[in-house]
Amino acid sequence: MTTTQRRTPTFGVPVTLMAAVAGQAAALTALGLLITHPPGNWWDPREDGLAGRLADHRTAALTTASDWLSALAWTPAIVTVTALAAALLLLRHRWRPAVLLAGAVALQAVLFVTVAHLVDRARPDVVRLDGALPTSSFPSGHVGAATALYGGLGLLALRSVRGRWRLPLCALAWTVPVLVAASRLYRGMHHPTDVVAGALNGAAALWVVWRALPERERPAPAARPVPGSRGPAALVYNPTAVDSAVLERLSAVLVAHGYGPPRCLPGDPDDCGRAAARRALADGARLVAACGGDGTVTACAEALAGTDAVLAVVPCGTGNLFARNLGLPTDPAAALAAALAGRARRIDLMRAEGDGLPARAAATMAGMGLDAAVMADTGRTLKRRLGWPAYVVGAARHLTDRRFELAVAVDGAEPVRRRVRMAVVGNVGTLQGGVRLLPDAAPDDGVLDLVLVQPRGPLGWAGAILALLTGERRQGPGAPLEHFRGRRIELTAARARPRECDGDPVGDGKVMTLTVRPGALLVQVPGTPQDMPAGPQDMPAGRAPAVPTDTKREAA
């Protein structure tokens, strides 16, 4: 049995939908009249100057390019592409995206014609390459249509496409409205505020139609389990990132899924919650929810490794790489609910050690070089304010750091020597934003993945970014990204370099050795995890398989 849920807050009924459309039309009309008839002449955009300068610098090549770009948003092209995209989506039984595209294009067209008639703005006083058109200049119909159609296609790519083409396809689709806007300005058909208003019209139309669509059909909720029927649970949390309100929400989720009222154990800053997780195990907890960043998650994972207790990941930190790679939502309560509704799955862990680095577990990634320097230089206050984009600020300080000599030994083979910016070993492969740094990495494949980032200069960095987006593979010292795989990976630098494990700096050193611990940890994953396809290691939530003998021995 399924139930269809609607978005109740805003445009779930026709009256509110019509009000939203009327409000969009009124706002665009008011903006246009404010620009063309400013009260008291206090507003003088002086936009004709830009149109004149562009007209004075036209070339045959640019004119041809602008002709092609404008054609992408010409009415016949928009209608054809919309119809084809909607038809393909309907053939795949995806009516909601089909309605989104067709409805947004149609809505922006109706509003464009209405607002253009009411505002009636003259086009720029230059030679216009498209001649005299029947509509006025404000807003740009080409830009509005391109934003609604190609912007909508970009959104669908971002939400639906998996793998290395996701971001390139999204970026390509979103670039089209920008190029169309530039072509309309170049051809003398619009003022700058016309194309801005056109983009706003298309984007608003997308938003209105999306809000008007009903939610997907979802299975009716199953009968709520009896509280306590699935045994005791514990919440191990980072007290600097999790407050009492979050703990109450998480406790309610656990009780709703059949666990008893959980013990809430704050983690000690010195061990990120490892001792608290061990106390929870000693008290008989069958499930331990790690509430914090990747450091808290790894500390709990190390305590649970080799046992039949299950780890649930609750993202409350900055990067939350482990949660992202499990396909969990970013909201803590939603992530816990999704995990508990899924399955317990056995995954690998990494063992990290080196000079001055006692053996410790790592669940996501560990590295040496630039990435570790960025982690060390990104302050806690900045991370609290910006979230994971704070690392971008830190990265900007180190992009010009010199490459360093590194020897890489995989599974005891003869070392390979390179000059690198950084070396990253991963149990998972996806960074923030869906970027696949390690495309082959999977947390349950029994091997580790290594990438050497070794670009030379700005062109080398551009090549590295291109390789990231396209998944291009090359080996050798000339490749901007070079990949290796193995069960044991040893990194040896000529001089001490910054090192990190799961985003936490672990001190400078010359050596860092990573060894895989296959199937060491039981973790709750969503029912349809993106990066962890169903396999024989899956089992229903709350049931744990026997731990393999070699895993128990290694964990000990």
Describe the structure.
The protein is α+β, with helices and mostly antiparallel strands. Helix 3 crosses helix 7. The chain is globular, with a radius of gyration of 28 Å. The longest helix is centred in the N-terminal third of the chain and has 25 residues, at 95-119. Strands 3, 4, 5, 6, 7, 8, 10, 11, 15, 18 and 19 form an eleven-stranded mixed sheet that branches. The protein is built from 18 helices and 19 strands. Mean pLDDT is 81; it is low at 1-13, 217-221 and 529-556. 43% of the residues lie in helices and 21% in strands. Strand 5, helix 11 (294-304) and strand 6 (310-315) form a beta-alpha-beta unit. The chain has helices at residues 14-36, 48-56, 60-71, 75-91, 95-119, 141-160, 166-186, 192-212, 244-256, 274-282, 294-304, 321-325, 332-340, 370-377, 380-386, 390-398, 457-470, 549-555; strands at 2-4, 217-219, 233-237, 263-266, 287-292, 310-315, 343-354, 357-362, 365-369, 404-410, 416-420, 422-426, 448-453, 481-486, 488-497, 499-501, 504-505, 509-525, 538-540.
Give the beta-strand count.
19
Structure annotation, total helices = 18
The low-confidence parts are: 1-13, 217-221, 529-556
What is the SS-derived class?
Answer: alpha+beta
Helix content: 40-55%
**Major sheet:** 11 strands, mixed
Shape: globular
Using only CA atoms, what is the Rg? 28 Å
* Strand content range: 15-25%
Cα(first) to Cα(last) distance is 47 Å
Mean pLDDT: 81
Give a brief outline of the structure:
This protein is of the alpha+beta class and 556 residues long.
